[in-house]
C-alpha cells in the first residue's frame, strides 16, 4: 500500500513538473509575442512618421510646382507684352521714317 501511494505521489509530481514546464513554455511564448508586438508597434510608428514626412514633402513639391507654373505664366505675359510693345515701337518708327522720307 505504501509503495502504491509513493507511486501515485511520484506520478503526481511528474504531472506537476510537466504542468509547470508547459506553463513556463507558455509564459515564454507570451513574452516572445509581446516582444514581437512591441517591435511591430515601433515599426508602425516609424512607417507612420515616414508617411507623414512623405506627405508633407509631396505637398511642398505641389506648392513649388504651382508657384513655378504661376511664374511661368507671368513670364509668358511679360514676354507677350514686351513683344507687343516692341512691335508697336517698330511700327511707329516705320511711320516716322516713311513720313520723314516722304
Automatic annotation (TrEMBL):
Q: Per the record, where are the segments of Basic and acidic residues compositional bias?
A: 1-18, 69-86
Give the organism's phylogenetic lineage: Eukaryota, Sar, Alveolata, Dinophyceae, Gonyaulacales
Name by which UniProt lists this protein: Uncharacterized protein
> Which residue intervals are annotated with compositional bias (Polar residues) in the record?
91-102
- Which species? Alexandrium catenella (Red tide dinoflagellate)
- Annotated region (Disordered) at 1-20, 65-102
Amino acid at each position: 500500500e505504501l509503495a502504491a501511494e509513493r507511486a501515485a505521489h511520484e506520478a503526481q509530481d511528474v504531472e506537476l513538473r510537466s504542468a509547470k514546464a508547459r506553463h513556463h513554455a507558455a509564459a515564454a511564448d507570451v513574452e516572445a509575442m509581446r516582444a514581437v508586438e512591441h517591435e511591430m508597434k515601433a515599426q508602425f510608428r516609424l512607417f507612420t512618421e515616414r508617411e507623414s514626412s512623405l506627405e508633407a514633402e509631396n505637398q511642398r513639391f505641389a506648392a513649388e510646382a504651382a508657384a513655378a507654373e504661376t511664374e511661368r505664366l507671368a513670364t509668358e505675359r511679360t514676354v507677350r507684352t514686351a513683344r507687343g510693345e516692341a512691335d508697336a515701337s517698330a511700327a511707329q518708327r516705320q511711320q516716322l521714317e516713311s513720313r520723314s522720307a516722304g
